[in-house]
């Protein structure tokens, strides 16, 4: 069985590096960003409407894949914790989860979303609607 993780698009953002990126979309510094999808996935946007809440899954392509323990939020004054109890992007398989609002859709396959803390060029691997009541 051939299973692959394939990027369906990329983040286009004013955040240019890990150092200036907020830790979560709810923090100051998260921005309005563009999600430019590969045209092969344009049909997947059918029936999406501005105002929808979405969960974006990204591949943190610049993360360190070796840590099993990290300082929460990068604060070295806090004791280290197991990486799976944190939202650190540094982990064995660095998948990012971002809850955003769809602001607009630009033809043929670009989403404008906010707030997003992912850096420019981050691969997007999936998009899902936020379940009602969440």
Write the layout of secondary structure elements.
Layout: E1 9-12, E2 31-37, E3 53-59, E4 69-70, E5 81-82, E6 95-106, E7 110-116, E8 123-129
Antiparallel strand pairs: 1-2, 1-8, 2-7, 3-6, 3-8, 4-5, 6-7
Q: Describe the largest sheet.
A: 6 strands, antiparallel, barrel
Mean pLDDT: 92
Helical stretch tally: 0
The secondary-structure element order is: EEEEEEEE
Q: What Rg do the Cα atoms give?
A: 15 Å
> Could you give the count of β-strands?
8
Give the termini distance in whole angstroms. 35 Å
Amount of helix: under 10%
Relevant CATH superfamily of the domain at 9-68 and 97-129: YaeB-like
Q: Shape, please?
A: globular
Structural class: mainly beta
Main-sheet strand order equals 1-2-7-6-3-8
